[in-house]
Amino acid sequence: MAGMKAPKIPIVIPAAPTHEDVYKMLALCPRDTFLGIRNRAILLIFMDTGVRLVEMSTIQRPHVNKEYDLILITGKVLSSVLYRWGRPRKKHS
Fold first, then answer.
1. 57 secondary structure, DSSP code
2. Whole-angstrom Cα distance, residue 50 to residue 46?
3. CB of 80 within 8 A of CB of 72?
C-alpha cells in the first residue's frame, strides 16, 4: 500500500435553485402559522444574504433591526457583519 496515490474525487458544485424552485419552496411555507413564517424568513435570509447555516443558527432577536432592515450575523472567528435585507442591491460594474 505504500506509494499508492489516493483516488482523485471530482469537485462538484451544486446548481443554484432556479426562480421556479425558489417560488415553490416559498409556496410551501404557510403565512398563517408560526412555523410557516419562520421557515419563509429563513429561506429569504439565506437567499438575500448568502449566509452559511452555522451563521444563520446564531441569529437571535436582538440581532435584527427591523427599522433599518439589518441583521447582525456573527461568522467565523467571531467576526460580525451587518446584512441589509429586502431591498434591491445596486449592481456593481
1. T
2. 5
3. yes
